[in-house]
Amino acid sequence: MKAILELHDIGYQVAQNQILQNISLSVAAQDYITITGPSGSGKSTLLRIIASLLTATKGEILFKGQNIMEIDPIQYRRKVSYCFQQPTLFGRTVADNLDFPFQIRQVIPDVDKQKAALKVVGLPETYLNKRITELSGGEKQRVAMIRNIMYVPDVLLLDEVTVGLDEENKRIVNNLIEHFHTDHQVTILSITHDESEIKQASRLLTITKGRLEESK
Amino acid sequence: MNLDVNNWSLTLAMLLVMIALWIGYREKLGIDREIIIGVIRAVIQLFVVGYLLKYIFKVNNVFLTFAMLLIIIFNASWNAQKRSNGMTNALVISFVAILVSTGVTLGVLILSGAIKLIPSQVIPISGMIASNSMVAIGLSYRSMNTQFRDQRQSVLERLALGGSLRDASIGILRESIKTGMAPTIDSAKTVGIVSLPGMMSGLIFAGVDPVHAIKYQIMVTFMLLSATSLGSVIACYMAYRNFYNTRKQLKESASED
């Protein structure tokens, strides 16, 4: 399978602190990669660099063969979408959040699509008008995830999205990831310590002290 | 005119400063020096400006009037940028925002015939406009800095979803513009009830009929709304990109390269 993402000798340094070094990785289209490693090892930093929310201080990243520095970051982030560990929802209601992906594309929000997405994560369509302050942690994470996939990206970067969730919510989120991987051919890079998700994945990478190793 | 502040009454009025000094001394506030410097500066600055204005009014030259306006606008910009916490280009942004807000407001007042294009009217009015615009811009900068720090996560999420810099900042922009305008809106609501503002008080002092004086105050209220809204909008829209780098990533602060 052709590589969708290629990382060549990525390094990231803040002042004298070397956070990532010599990271090279080839991600094939439709790969499902999980990344583990101790806290502070640089996992989130790596994902944020891939998402173009940070720029590597060394090396280069190719997306479909093109250096990401040559691609408009906004267009790139719509194709390589990053989900945060503890997401913040915007505005007042769930709809405010699910409208955002449409608004940034200057498109009228597709309510049917929003309702269908809510259904996929086990939330009733009446939730569109629910206030975000009334959602549980698991529901917030589910809403945040469908916000990322209202327009299906090529690559989904997941930063410990199931951490702190109960078993039921974990199962729903993992099913959603699996659904997008198999049914929509989305390439997945996921930081996780969740055994069931690691089993689901095709490759397992470990980051220790800013260096990457492949273990599956 | 029934105005008669002679040098002797001014000297006696200086006793009022003694009250402030006495309070500072008794309460051990440690501000005696600040008060004395403040008083000396105020007296010198006002004397200088008094004689300068007398000269400019007498000469009545358009270029000299505009030169004076530019000095006022530059000083206002210099003070506004101090509130920006080291933001790149803050002086230029403040200057453009104050120049446009003062220029447009002044232009409307002159074209509508509310004031005449003579130094004794243009200069004091410009000073009022520029200083209010300056305060509004300073408040907007402060609000922007605080919000970009406090709402960092939310801005990052909007960027991660593929939002443009404007999409990611729009909430902060609106809030910062509102913050800049808030004091003017509040004072517009309470004018006449809580305060009898400077313009109106000055005219009443000078013996003008209060009914006539309020018309000027209404004009001032309108012009300050225009000046603060224009100043805040221009400054905020020019400044928010400073919080991002060329790769459209959120920086740690607006002063970072």
From TrEMBL, chain A:
* Pfam families xref list: ABC_tran (PF00005)
For this UniProt record, the keywords arranged alphabetically read as follows: ATP-binding, Cell inner membrane, Cell membrane, Membrane, Nucleotide-binding, Phosphate transport, Translocase, Transport
User: What GO biological process, any one, is recorded here?
Assistant: phosphate ion transport
High-level lineage: Bacteria, Bacillati, Bacillota, Bacilli, Lactobacillales
Which InterPro entries would you find in this protein's record? AAA+_ATPase (IPR003593), ABC_transporter-like_ATP-bd (IPR003439), ABC_transporter-like_CS (IPR017871), P-loop_NTPase (IPR027417)
Keyword Translocase (UniProt): yes
SUPFAM superfamilies in the record: P-loop containing nucleoside triphosphate hydrolases
Instruction: State the Gene Ontology terms under molecular function.
Output: ATP binding; ATP hydrolysis activity
Protein name, as recorded: ABC transport system ATP-binding protein
Q: Species name for this entry?
A: Pediococcus ethanolidurans
- Taking every annotated instance into account, which residue ranges of this chain make up the domain ABC transporter? 5-216
Entry annotated with the keyword S-adenosyl-L-methionine: no
SMART domains named among the record's database cross-references: AAA
From TrEMBL, chain B:
Q: Which UniProt keywords apply?
A: Membrane, Transmembrane, Transmembrane helix
Q: Which organism is it from?
A: Pediococcus ethanolidurans
What main location does UniProt list?
A: membrane
Question: Which ranges does the record mark as transmembrane?
Answer: 6-23, 35-53, 59-78, 90-115, 121-141, 190-208, 214-240
Q: Where in the cell is it found?
A: Membrane
User: Highest taxon of the source?
Assistant: Bacteria
Q: Which family does it belong to?
A: Belongs to the UPF0014 family.
Q: Which PANTHER family match?
A: PROTEIN ALUMINUM SENSITIVE 3, UPF0014 INNER MEMBRANE PROTEIN YBBM-RELATED
Q: Could you name the Gene Ontology cellular component terms for this entry? A: plasma membrane
Pfam families listed in its UniProt record = UPF0014
Membrane topology listed for this record: Multi-pass membrane protein
Coiled-coil blocks: none
Against InterPro entries, the record matches this protein to: UPF0014_fam
Name of this chain's protein: ABC transport system permease protein
